[in-house]
Fold this protein.
Amino acid sequence: MKLAVKTLDNKAAGDITLDETVFGVEVRQDILHKMVNYQLAKRRAGTHKTQTRSEVTGTTAKPFKQKGTGRARAGDLRRNIDRGGAVVHGPVVRSHAISLPKKVRALALRMALSVKAKEGKLVVLDKAESKDHKTKGMAEALAKFGFGSALIVGGKEIDVNFARATANIPLIDVLPSQGANVYDILRRDMLVLTKDAVADLTERLKG
């Protein structure tokens, strides 16, 4: 699969051949769905917490005698029906992460890359570098491509000026090649890869 390489000014800079085993695999929606669920579940904090009966502050003394009062029996005043009492079966601190085989995760990333390639929403840049950190110039440069929502994936390290220049542009995300993931690829309309990113992802996912 051949694709034209562009400069940051949207000018031609040659061609690049994309590996079919990475950018041309058959797409399965169920695997992409599982991967997105895996990512979103894994990033949940899981710090929600309610107090159980043993954790509520209060005396454990029996408030009144068992019989003869005409009232329902009570062992203490920390029951869920008491004011200020405990919560029954409430949330506790836990991990929401679910398991997904490593091979399936790698396959899902190849599928996400293939989706963008097949839809014509993949752009390859020669380099993702900027002379300064000004947002205005970078916004004008990206506007030449005509997309308003994009994920830009650079090489192993992102140019500092480029990262700063794109930081305040709405719907534009920038990640190093190691951080490329299914959720961020699918949540943006366009996928922009540098030549270094293509090489890194191909090496990481090939075979």
